[in-house]
Structure formats: structure tokens, C-alpha cells
Amino acid sequence: MSRKPSPAPTLRSRSGPQPAAFPLAAGILLGLGLGGFFDGILLHQILQWHHMATSAGYPADSLGNLRLNTTLDGLFHLGTYLFTLGGFALLWRAARRTHVRWGVRPLVATLLMGFGLFNVVEGLVNHHILGLHHVNETVPREQWIWWDLGFLLWGALMLGGGWALWRRSPESRP
User: Fold this and answer.
1) In which residue ranges of the chain is pLDDT below 50?
2) Are 112 and 165 in contact (CB under 8 A)?
3) 38 near 115, Cβ under 8 Å?
4) DSSP notation for the chain
5) How high is the pLDDT of residue 170?
6) CB atoms within 10 A of CB 39
7) Which of 4, 36, 32, 42 is nearest to 162 (CA)?
8) What is the pLDDT of residue 109?
9) Model's pTM, two decimal places?
10) What's the confidence (pLDDT) of residue 11?
């Protein structure tokens, strides 16, 4: 038995009810921030698999290199914090409108898209193009590529899954 999708939420204005689409940019920015925090907190700090420049000639094998990498990790976290703040600001701005109500699907969809986009861009740029670091530098060097490719695949699946969920959401259309 198939369910009919619920109608898109509406926004009241002087010209009558208007569709109120979920703010795509807000969700993607929040997802980018969450993806960055996940990477920085879990992979950089808790598991200590890599830091920002451990494969770019600054392995964390001396106090000076560790200090540099910690500073770069902090700047990376500042960037993810700014993505998150930007997402919250856009979401707050859109949510302050009268009579706006969204379902959970567009939020989850846009968070997945942002998180996946983070993995794909960060993985391509930092791991493959610039070679700043690799996902798991605690395993033998010949295995690094598999961790990097897995990270890209995971990101692509989140990005694609989020996009598919977004396309099926009535709140994605004004």
C-alpha cells in the first residue's frame, strides 16, 4: 500500500498562502559542519589516524610538527564551526517566517548531502590532489589508498542518498 506524499508546507503572506520550501543551503552547510567535526574529532583527535599535514612533510613525530598539525587542525575546526554557524543562521532565518513547518525528511536529506559533500571534496582535495594527509596513516602505507577510496565511496553514498531523499520530499519544492 503506497502512501500519498503530504502536501508541501505553506507560508502565509499578504498575497495568500505560498509554498515554503526547506532551506537547502542551511541543511547542506550544517551537514558540511557535521562532516568536518566528525572527521576532526574522531579521525584527528580520538583515533589519531592523521592530522592536517602529516603526509605533507610534517609527520607528528616531533613536538614542532605536532604543534603545527594541532594548529592546522584547529583552523580546520574553525572552518567547520563557521559552516555550522552559517547553516544555523540560514535555518533560523527561514524558520522565523510565519506558519512554516517542515518534516524531518528534508533536514536528514540535506544533512546527508552536506556530510557526503564534505567527504568527497575533502577526500579528493586533501587526500588525493594535495596529499596533505590520508584517512588512516596508522596502517601500512600500501593500505592508505583503500582507506581513502572507502572515505570517498562513503561520502558519495551519503551525497547520493541525501539527494534521492531530497527529491522525494514534498518540502524540497516551493
Assistant:
1) 10-17
2) yes
3) yes
4) -PPPPPPPPEEEETTEEEE----HHHHHHHHHHHHHHHIIIIIIIIS----TTTTTT--TTSHHHHHHHHHHHHHHHHHHHHHHHHHHHHHHHHHTSTT----HHHHHHHHHHHHHHHHHHHIIIIIIIS-S--S-TTS-GGGHHHHHHHHHHHHHHHHHHHHHHHHT-GGG--
5) 80
6) 23
7) 32
8) 96
9) 0.84
10) 47
Q: How many CA atoms lie within 13 A of 158 on its CB side?
A: 24
48 torsion bin: left (phi>0), alpha (psi -120 to 50), beta (else) = left
The predicted-structure confidence for 12-49, as pLDDT tens digits, reads as follows 444 444 556 889 999 999 999 999 999 999 999 999 99
Candidates 22, 28, 168, 13; CA nearest to 86 is 28
- Given this model, what pLDDT does residue 103 score? 84
Grid coordinates given for 155: 561520502
pLDDT at 5: 53
Provide the grid cell at 78: 574553525
